Amino acid sequence: MTTTTFYDSDIARKPLLTELRNLYEYRGLIRLLVTRDMTVRYKRSSLGVWWTLLNPLFTSAALWVVFGQFFRFDTGDTPYIVYLLSGILIATFFSQAVVATGASIVNSSSVLTKVYVPPEIFAFSAAFAGAVNFVIGLVPLFIVQLATGTGIPWTALLVPIPVICLLALVAGVGLLVASAAVFFYDVLDFTAVLIQLVGYLTPTFYPISIVPQQFLPLLQANPLYSFLLVFRGFVYEGVFAPGWAFAVMIGSAVAVLIVGVWVFHRSWRQLVVVL
Amino acid sequence: MNQQVIEVQKASLAYRLSRNRVGTIKEFAIQALRRQVRYEQFWALKEVSFTVAQGEIFAVIGPNGAGKSTLMKMIARVLPPSGGRVVVRGSLAPMIELGAGFNQELTAFENIVLYGALLGRRPELMRERAPSIAEWAGLSEFLDVPIRSFSSGMMARLGFSVATDIEPDILVVDEVLAVGDEAFQAKSKSRFQSMLDRGTTVVLVSHDLDAVLDLASRVLWLERGMVKMLAEPKVVIDAYRESV
User: Fold this and answer.
1) Most A CBs within 10 Å: which of B25, B27, B52, as the mutation test of the A interface?
2) What is the tens place of the pLDDT at every residue in B73-129?
3) Which residues in chain B touch residue A102, judged by CB atoms under 8 angstroms apart?
4) Phi, psi of B121 (to 5 degrees)
5) Which CATH superfamily includes the segment(s) B4-243?
6) Domains of chain B by residue range
7) Lowest pLDDT segment from A85-94, A102-111, A255-264, B14-23
8) For the whole model, what pTM was predicted?
9) What gap in Å lies between CA A260 and CA A257, rounded to an integer?
């Protein structure tokens, strides 16, 4: 007999170690799930994957008209459209991927209750799909940067750093949402509203210069603000954001991911029986 | 041949049923305010113990709601036990509602690869095996067709073909042997038989008592989540038939 696999329900799994091993072991499945997410959604549409780009582009176009042309927000040396599009890309990544990750476990319940697959694989796949969409979204951003004469600094090569951190943050928040969504199905609607509120507290479409002094701490308490500072610094400003922004970005990503994985593992026993 | 490949030790599984079916945060908040949130433990399985030796065909019988499917899912690692312990030695293929991972929009080929990957097989291997898997299911000419246009019989055949493509050490079967038309049933029976000949351990749930009497080496009778009897097929089935 080939004892290739061994299962003992008594052996407590160490969440983070197991997680890393699972991610590696199931990398083939993750790749399949990410492509499935992206192809299935657009299979019956003529534009296909290009739909991914339309959401941030249309949002940006609308906001550009309202805030760039009517309100005439001043973003200094940076053309408003570059400032706006870079912000929208980060915000879209966060909101879409958190909701998708949150829904992933409930949506895969038919599989998860019949076949043993580490459940987090579905959550991480949804988060990865969000990251892939984000990377596709960088193409129009770079085009706009070139077209407006902003150019692409060498620091753009460092963009993967904030992207990986955001992926970790999204996965962590998504796992927390996913755990709750199994018990209460309105959690997902609730999350969407909450994310929208957080979105307004993030300077995606308004310059930080218009924010009154007393409200700045509120913005700085929002980790997404740090992500934006780092990302914008790298992608078009060609500078490194202040150290505190890096600290908040990396710290929040690591902490939230650990908490998310831990809570999800701890509650899986209760989750799976109601799934 | 004496090695115990499955050990179930006083395994229990509790479902938490809420009395007033809480489904949303809103309802939960309202009921919490009224102090109406009450949960009831429902024991789907209660201190079930048994072992299965390598090469055995172990059948589980019992009335609906006795916990048979829950037990299969527990062995298949899908449901962690709330109490007790489950140990499984060897690779295990679950055949519990075949094709649960199928996606309607994807083609048969894509679904074979995806379902195989869900069962823990490498996608590259599945891409190689896909043509022969489809051929075995009699669906070769539909390999590039989205399965939303498949009949339920075609889907079941495809699911069976993928699940049994690789020979596992342990097969967990929950009422899925009656798949497809007669020709396909004969085909699946012979594949099943060849696995048995090779020493695959089988744990199966069935309501077909004659088949169980015919196939099984031992039979477990579950009743309300508890072991009512565990013995030779003839003894258990006679007692079971008398009780019904």
Assistant:
1) B25
2) 999 999 999 889 999 998 888 888 777 778 888 899 999 999 999 988 899 999 999
3) none
4) -100, 155
5) P-loop containing nucleotide triphosphate hydrolases (3.40.50.300)
6) 4-243
7) B14-23
8) 0.89
9) 5
